[in-house]
């Protein structure tokens, strides 16, 4: 299949999935009540894709031919600017609370200059990181899911941008993400809480969450994240595109679209992409950026007085027990009590409910993850002869039992 046709195919598949990813696991009557609540805040994937096309065409025709000198310096300089921008924004918030207008004006001028400098590097940084990840995937013999030919497919392509939010909806009587809706970027806390309150009144549990990336085409990755996070998330979103052409990933698309919801498949897919992207991310970082931030003094490794991960897993286990006994109100009261306790320990979780665990519970590296799927995937990775072998084996699976049998 020609590369151009492949790119068009992946674009079409992912666009269609994104358009319908709000799901249909709940009744049409529920949707009829939900739609007026979310309509003013919806993020249009189709509109974003249409706006992205001219930029992508220009990049493929001209931008990718540009030779970039000292690529490592360009990338590290960009992320250095990002750190400085965050620091300046913090200082501006402090200045806004006071009366030092002259200092405020100087800070804002400096901020504008830094942001302009950062933006001039953004396109180059995207292309450099794409190439570095692509080269590392090639070194691992991970090329494409369709043929054995040694060219990368889908073509690795991402954009650093402010990301939209995700509304996650779970039933109250169990932890299960039965519907997700993509919402616009600029939501205030008051907007999130208003949406959640109105959706909860429909008899479900809901939560508006921030996300780190979306497997659109090109992928969207959080522009405010660190270099390491950017590398790992870009790889992870590409893997979701790659997996869409494999049995596991195709079943996950059916789950996302609401055609055939399967929480185990979603967990396997997300966890697989997370494990592989972490390994690729480590290789990229070590190869190209091992000296990045070398001047920073490593913090001493101390045993924490409070173990957040253990606490979250204990909360999840207790909540599952309450819900299995049909004690929904007690489960919700318990979660709110533990949320307040976590705040006293410095963990400012805005809302802890069934939707919170439904979202975070599909990621093997999350404290909210209690499924044995994560341990089984790690065991299978340890037994696999290569990262490619591990990826191919799990990608061919079609149900939870396939994974369990593979590690017996």
What separation lies between the terminal Cα atoms? 38 Å
Task: State the helicity in percent bands.
Answer: 55-70%
Calculate the mean pLDDT score and round it: 87
Compute the gyration radius: what is it?
22 Å
Uncertain regions spanning at least 5 consecutive residues? 1-12, 18-24
Overall number of strands: 6
Largest sheet: 3 strands, mixed
What is the N-to-C succession of helices and strands? HHHHHEEEHEEEHHHHHHHHH
Number of individual domains: 1
Question: Could you please describe the fold and organization of this structure?
Answer:
The chain is mainly alpha-helical and 408 residues long. The protein has one domain (3-289). Helix content is 60%, strand content 7%. The chain is built from 15 helices and six strands. It has helices at residues 3-20, 28-38, 45-61, 71-96, 101-139, 189-200, 227-243, 247-257, 263-289, 308-324, 328-344, 354-360, 373-383, 387-395, 400-406; strands spanning 158-161, 165-171, 179-183, 204-210, 213-214, 219-222. The strands form two sheets. Strands 1-6-5 form a three-stranded mixed beta sheet. Strands 3-2-4 form a three-stranded antiparallel beta sheet. A hairpin with a 4-residue loop joins strand 5 and strand 6 (219-222). Helix 13 crosses helix 15 (400-406). The protein is globular. The model is unreliable at 1-12 and 18-24 (pLDDT under 50).
